[in-house]
Amino acid sequence: MLEINHISKKYVKGKETYTALDNVSLKIESGDFIAVVGPSGSGKSTLLHTVGGLIRPDSGQVLFRGKSVYKMDSHEVNKYRRKNVGFVFQQFHLIPYLTVYENIKLTEIELENENGSIEATLEKCALLPLKNKYPSELSVGEKQRTAFVRAIISNPEILLADEPTGNLDPGNSQILMSLIKEFRENGGTVLLVSHEAETTNYANRIVTLRAGKLL
Ligand SMILES: Nc1ncnc2c1ncn2[C@@H]1O[C@H](COP(=O)(O)OP(=O)(O)OP(=O)(O)O)[C@@H](O)[C@H]1O
Prior knowledge:
- The strands form 2 sheets. The protein has a 6-stranded mixed β-sheet, sandwiched between helices.
- It has one domain (2-214): Rossmann fold.
- The chain is of the alpha/beta class.
- It is globular, with a radius of gyration of 17 Å.
- The protein has helices at residues 44-51, 74-84, 100-107, 117-124, 140-152, 170-185, 197-200; strands at 2-13, 16-28, 33-37, 59-64, 67-68, 85-89, 158-162, 189-193, 205-210, 213-214.
- Helices cover 32% and strands 28% of the residues.
- It binds adenosine-5'-triphosphate.
C-alpha cells in the first residue's frame, strides 16, 4: 500500500547539518502494524511526517498505491493527508478554543450516510458526555482519545502515531492502544513510533532506526 523508497532528509541549521534519514526504504502492506523504535534523534518523527506528506525528503520517494506523494500537486497532497492519513501526536495538538466535538468536526470530511458517526465514535471512546468540553477541561487520557477520534473519523487507511502514549499513565495507555488495535482489526494500517515495550507488543513488525538508517 505504501512504499518508502530510498528516502534521505537533512536539516541545515546555520553551519550545522543534521542527517535525519539516510537512504531509508520500507514497505507497508495494508493491515500492517509497524512499530518504529530507535534512540532519540534517530529520525523516527521525520520518517512518520515524511510518510504523512508533511516533510518533503531531499531524495527518494513515498509511493501511496503506486502514486508518488511528493510529485502530487498541492491539491492532491492535501487530499492524500485528509482522506488517507490520520495523525496522533504525543502532544495531542487539539485546538484550545474548540470543544471536543468541534475539534473532531473540523477534520471530518463529508461522507455519505455518516450522520451521527462522530457521536457513535465518541460513545465508543467514552467521550460522549464530554463532547461540549474544551481541551483545558479534559484529563490527558481524554485529550488523547479526542485526538484519536479526530485522526480516525474520516476512515483513513493509515494511522500515523508519534509516541501517542508518551504523556499517558499505564491505564490510559492501555485504553488508547486497545482503540488503535480495534482500528487495525477493522482494516486499518498503523505506523507507530514508540519507546515503550508495551506499545510495540501490538505490532506485527518492529523496525529500528539508528542515526537515520534503518537497521
Ligand atoms: N526542524 C529541524 N531543524 C533542524 N534539525 C532538526 C529538525 N527536526 C529534527 N532535526 C534533527 O534531525 C534528527 C532527527 O530528528 P527526529 O525528530 O526525526 O528524531 P526522533 O527519532 O523522532 O527523536 P525523538 O525520539 O527524540 O523524538 C535529530 O538530530 C534532530 O535534532
